[in-house]
Amino acid sequence: MKLRFQPTVFFTTVLLGALTCLSGCATTGMDRATKTTNLMQTVEGDYRETSGQIDITRASLEDLIKPTQTEVKKANDVYTDNVVKMEKLGKRLDTHTDNMRTKGNDYFMGWESSYTNPDIRELSERRRIEMREIYAKIPEASIGVKGALKSYLTDIREIQKYLANDLTPLGIAAINPIAQRALTDGENVKEAIKPVLSAIDQVKFEMTRGGAVKTSETDQK
User: Fold this and answer.
1) Tens digits of per-residue pLDDT, 114-159?
2) pTM for the full model?
3) Which residues, at least 6 apart from 53, have a Cβ–Cβ distance to it below 8 Å?
4) Taking the CB of the first residue and of the last residue of the chain, which one, N or C, has fewer CB atoms within 10 A?
């Protein structure tokens, strides 16, 4: 059975609820949505920066292992700095992703559903379920990134350690095949990031255009 709403009645109901919330609520559904969206933007920035740093690290590794390299020490220092930056980005991404997951759970737990009007209650619940399904796409898409990034970070760090012990023409030549695989792994990470960014964009759009009509009792305290 499809719901039928009188536009004027529905708008008035929502407006009254919003005015009541503004006068007595500490945190609204929109506030929670904004906090969650801000975290998603932070994570999105981390992913984009990670993808860009992979390109920079790739260039420094390729420069280091090329046969015509004459300034090996300098090239190795640049590569080492980029490995450190990649590791810092990986840790920061993990932290921000965990925070985003927590805020997302708080957002949906605080979604008000105890309306007197059964039509609004059903509308709110349907919207909450719809938003949960969309939001779930982010962790689903992130699964592939986490494993690929961890493997990539391990490879570039161990290559750096190896060359720190044997920064000779023979040592560089010996590590070349492994370095080439690491370069490919970096490209795989970048490809894995793309669906995550797409999922974040979709959730941000949905949270911007809609959300909880009323705050939860927990947020009212």
Assistant:
1) 678 888 888 888 887 887 887 788 877 788 888 899 999 999 999 9
2) 0.72
3) 82, 85, 86, 89
4) N
